[in-house]
Amino acid sequence: MTIDWKKWEKEREAEARLAQTRAVPVYRPARPMGAALARALRPLLKEAGPAPETLQSRWTEIVGLRIAAITEPVRVSRARGGNVLHLRVPSAAAPIIQHARDHILERVNLASGSKITSLKLIQTAPPKQLALVIPRPLTPEQREALVKRLAPVQNRAVRTALAQLGEAILTGQRKG
Asked: What's the number of domains the chain is made of?
């Protein structure tokens, strides 16, 4: 076995140079797993569209007070041409919302950064409006007339119940 002295000398010179110029390893802290995951999922989430909870919480801000008062976002689904936003709308307001479709889509896409291409309206019955009845107090004359009319009733429980009923009728209160 022969030794190649030239190769051996070059290796020793290289070892000597490395010993003199040892580099300090660069410390790079590990990136959080969430950052890598967010970077990987960003394109998929953009295609999926916004979450319904996000839309519901910001709906007034996105479409404005007038449209938000009569609509409610239900969900975002995928279709061939793009995503579809499902809105719950009273049937009487459906033509108005259909007319404002382009405006709503533009605002939702701008706010969410997604590609929603169409609306699907889920028509519902209008919400019941509860009438606000402010009871007015009985006048002394009305109270006196009510007491006189109930005087012939002998049973105290029946008289009290009739007095409450008469007072509710005369003041316009509705119970139950």
From this structure: 2
47-82 burial string, b = 16+ CB within 10 Å, else e?
Answer: eebbeeeebeebbeebbeeebbebbbbeebeeeeee
Residues of the chain with pLDDT under 50: 176
Does 78 share its domain with 141?
no
**Residue type (1 letter), 47:** E
Contact 77, 84 (CB under 8 A): yes
Examine residue 165 and state whether it is found in any structural domain, yes or no.
yes
Please write the tens of the pLDDT for every residue from 33-42. Answer: 888 888 888 7
- From the number of C-beta atoms within 10 Å of its C-beta (0-12, 13-18, 19+), residue 116 rates as buried
Q: What is the pTM of this model?
A: 0.50
Sign (positive or negative) of CA dihedral 62, 67, 71, 77: negative
